[in-house]
Amino acid sequence: MAGGGWSSFPGDLLKEVFARLSSDADHLHIHQVCAHWRAFTSLLAACRPWILAGRGGRTGLEPIGEYFLRLPRGDARRLEVGAPPSGLPYCCGTSRGWLALVDDDLSPTRLVLLEPLSGTETPLPCLSPLTRIFVSDDPLASSDWIAIAAQIKGSIGQKTLIWRPGDATWTVMNERGTSAIDTIAFHDGKAYYIDIQRNIVICDLNTGSDPSPKCTPIFYASFAVNKLCRCHRLHPACGVHLAVCNGELLLVVLYWGSHPWPAEVYRPVWTPNCWWRVSPGRTDTITVRDKHTIQVVNILSLFNVPINEHYMGYL
Fold this sequence. Notes:
Layout: H1 11-20, H2 24-31, H3 35-40, E1 50-54, E2 62-71, E3 77-80, E4 90-95, E5 98-102, E6 111-115, E7 120-124, E8 132-135, E9 147-153, E10 157-163, E11 171-178, E12 181-187, E13 190-195, E14 200-204, E15 214-218, H4 221-226, E16 237-245, E17 248-255, E18 263-272, E19 277-278, E20 283-289, E21 292-298, H5 299-302
Antiparallel strand pairs: 1-2, 2-3, 2-4, 4-5, 5-6, 6-7, 8-9, 9-10, 10-11, 12-13, 13-14, 14-15, 16-17, 17-18, 18-21, 19-20, 20-21
Protein name: KIB1-4 beta-propeller domain-containing protein
InterPro entries: KIB1-4_b-propeller (IPR005174)
Domain KIB1-4 beta-propeller: 70-277
């Protein structure tokens, strides 16, 4: 080790030290030391959520006071990381453990991705106005990550733009626009998002030399989602989200308080050119737009859960 420094630290010893670490912060720090250490350690299977403390801004961008990372490992430990970098008081995104920070909520001129535990900053070309930033992967762990921005279009709409490392500017992804976007799920080379009116947009990011992804909208998904309720009395969904868990794209349906369960999780399968049908068992295929269907499989059936048993989980 004396000759090579930290990069010559024995791999088996690194693995043993890594296995003894208990906090998310320590796991992240040891993985970021150098390429040699990254080869013998691994990132967390799931990023812990950032909880931001701020005051409501004029445009929805939150001015940050103190922010922290809650580590839900039984003792609900809280890690304080201090104030944001100077001149970047507003947050417009929290993806993959990174914060997207800007210098102004109305007319930003500076946009930076910050990893608060390591203090790593990644500047991005700034858009103005700007509502949200989403990141596909951890920039410290992947060279193929991308950023997607939501920008105001008209009075209530939003359009999306894409940026890849090395790009000088943002590229329009979906000019047509949607309503406000809460979350974007990245899976198998595609980006999926649902706006607040529950229109679904699927964007193929593997477009070769063409920087603009091919986007396919599926309108009025609310009708299909509401049909998933199997109660004697219909319970309309109060929220619909797409999320990736354990390598699978999942549809998370939230219900109002009168529903027997606050949330149900399904596996969507996108298939073209099918007619509406309801198959026996736990699988439904529902047309939500001409020549587009969603085949929805109740995730409970994938693990052979009996019909009369229900499990509830939070993503």
